[in-house]
Write a structure and sequence with these properties.
Keywords: Aminotransferase, Pyridoxal phosphate, Transferase. There is one protein chain. The chain is 39% helix and 14% strand. It has helices at 8-13, 16-29, 36-49, 60-70, 88-95, 114-123, 141-151, 203-212, 235-244, 248-265, 293-302, 330-336, 350-362, and strands at 53-57, 78-81, 99-102, 128-132, 155-158, 166-167, 170-171, 178-182, 196-200, 217-219, 222-223, 271-272, 286-290, 339-342. A hairpin with a 2-residue loop joins strand 10 (217-219) and strand 11. The radius of gyration is 20 Å and the shape is globular.
């Protein structure tokens, strides 16, 4: 049995009729950028996320960066984030010439440690906070929102890995001032290429984002605000996402079932599974910890089971910046040396999950 970390062929094959219909609809329309598919997807995705507004973009990275720009974050401003989430937030913070301020993470959840964020907001100058719902775990946004409101700073949610998650009655993305989503093909809701979106309950912010995604134009060739670019979700991707969106809850449920099967079946005392948390976890990634992840990875590869590492290099230790700082994040650094990602996608069968469990228990 050979098992990949993802299987987009299986995923796409199951929806082939619907996808073909969506693509043919776009081809016949003659409108391929910022047309009816994009506007319809924006309405449908905003409703799904229980938010007032959605602005569709070319990528999740653009969604983070343009959110920061729309929130007024720029030169020398300080943005709190984590260092264990693949550098995506740090890249966009630096893109607007701001400074990432890294907050330690909780060793169990791998999410930003709320107590450390609270202390930082009280003791330091912070101009914005980015919360990443890492691996598909929605953070305690009610508590974090309370902290940022008291500090008077904007809150941006990075929901790239958590579309559809729900905690305390709220969808991921509906609590912050803005929320960024990625539709990279392997995401829980993925396009057939790149794509992204921002949701917000703030009309003024959404209107500014619509300007920023198209050069800053308020009308053709008239630049009303600086910092804009060409970042538009094309009609083909919007149509594909519309075809997939009605299936997202079912796919998330299946991901949780797979995660629970792993958690209940893995009995190797050297391997620790992530906590299981109901709807607040949409199991984008199933990340285990162990003292010898490289050894486990080699063993699973010998049984034709693919794995990955999310993420091997903390942001503050990236080669481009590590020579210029003295930052120490012991929990973040320790976790990066102990993590391994197992296959977890909706088309994975129980038989395949049991095969992986058996291999881990035999290691």
């Amino acid at each position: 049995m050979k098992i990949g970390i993802n299987d987009l062929q299986r995923h796409t094959r199951n929806l082939e009729f619907n996808l073909r219909h969506a693509i043919e609809r776009v081809l016949r329309s003659g409108r391929y950028v910022l047309g009816g598919e994009c506007s319809s997807f924006e309405q449908e995705f905003a409703a799904y996320c229980e938010a007032a507004h959605c602005v569709a973009l070319a990528s999740g990275t653009d969604a983070l960066e343009l959110s920061l720009r729309a929130l007024g974050i720029g030169d020398g401003m300080r943005v709190a984030t984590v260092a264990n989430a693949g550098s995506f937030s740090a890249v966009t913070i630096r893109a607007v010439r701001a400074v990432p301020v890294f907050v330690e993470v909780d060793p169990g959840s791998h999410l930003m440690k709320i107590e450390d964020l609270e202390a930082l907001l009280q003791e330091d100058r912070i101009d914005a906070v980015i919360i990443t719902h890492l691996f598909g775990f929605m953070h305690d946004m009610q508590a974090i929102r309370g902290l940022t409101e008291r500090a008077g700073v904007p809150l941006l949610e990075d929901c790239a890995q958590a579309p559809g998650a729900r905690r305390d009655g709220r969808r991921a993305g509906s609590v912050g001032d803005a929320a960024a989503f990625s539709f990279y093909p392997t995401k829980n809701l993925g396009a057939l290429g790149d794509g992204g979106a921002i949701i917000s309950n703030n009309l003024q912010l959404a209107d500014r984002l619509r300007l920023l995604r198209q050069y800053g134009w308020d009308r053709k060739y008239s630049i009303a605000c600086l910092g804009g670019r060409n970042s538009r979700l094309d009609e083909m991707q919007a149509a594909v996402l519309r075809a997939k969106l009605p299936h997202l809850d079912r796919w998330n449920t299946r991901r949780r079932e797979i995660a629970a099967r792993y958690a209940n079946g893995i009995r190797n005392c050297r391997v620790t599974c992530p906590p299981q948390r109901g709807e607040e976890y949409v199991a984008h990634l199933f990340v285990v910890t162990c003292d010898d992840p490289d050894g486990l990875r080699r063993y699973l590869a010998s049984h034709q089971i693919a794995t990955d590492v999310h993420y091997p290099i903390p942001d503050h230790l990236q080669p481009a910046v590590s020579q210029n700082n003295s930052i120490s994040l012991p929990v973040t650094e320790r976790l990066a040396k102990r993590i391994l990602t197992l296959p977890c996608f909706p088309e994975l069968s129980d038989e395949e999950v049991d095969y992986i469990i058996g291999a881990i228990n035999a290691w």
